[in-house]
Amino acid sequence: MTKQVVAVEQDTPFKDVARMLVANGISAMPVLDSDGRVIGVVSEGDLMRKEEFREQYHGESYQPSLRTRLRRKVTDRSEDGGTKAAADTAAGLMTAPAVTVAPHASTVRAARLMDEYGVKRLVVVNEEGRLEGVVSRRDLLRTYLCDDEEIRRRVVAGITPRDRWNDRDGIIVEVHDGIVTLSGYIDRRSQAAAAARTAERLDGVVDVHEDLVWRRDDILELPFTWDRP
To answer: 46, 144, 153, 212: most buried by Cβ count inside 10 Å?
Structure first.
């Protein structure tokens, strides 16, 4: 994530919000309350509502496009565009609540939130709701630049010691272009599944190929009871 974040207070005037966006070359900023907690995000699009709804104020029958209305409905972010168009401070302009993520959240969680809400960045907040930074799509892409040897080290570290490869059996980990291949011989199928899940959750992993051979399929085993007639 980016820790040096330009933020704005809730009572900042419209023109100052616009000036900060332009001066810093950014398209959106977190909005903070008097206690420094994130209460929303104000974007270029929010400010552009004044232009978007100008025709409506002049008595014409302007409506946002169907695509825009559907997106707001799906993300549960339906709003009165006229209210934003009439706003003159950050609090009135912002989209709230902000789409946030915890500092310790995985890249998978962050990517899913971005996709779910149709946003390009997430505000990172701590347990008290205070600003920690911002994570963007580009930040998530950087995780895939991790070299193969570092990814392999993380995967091996995540596998329990008894399942790691020794002279005869265990899990062999190979990584090429971010793709993890797990091979070798282990005792139970559940061990193979656990190793694959461990690799899939790691940042920078592009894909996981599981090619393990197990001696016992304990996943399909069901408890059996026999009742005498």
So the answer is: 46
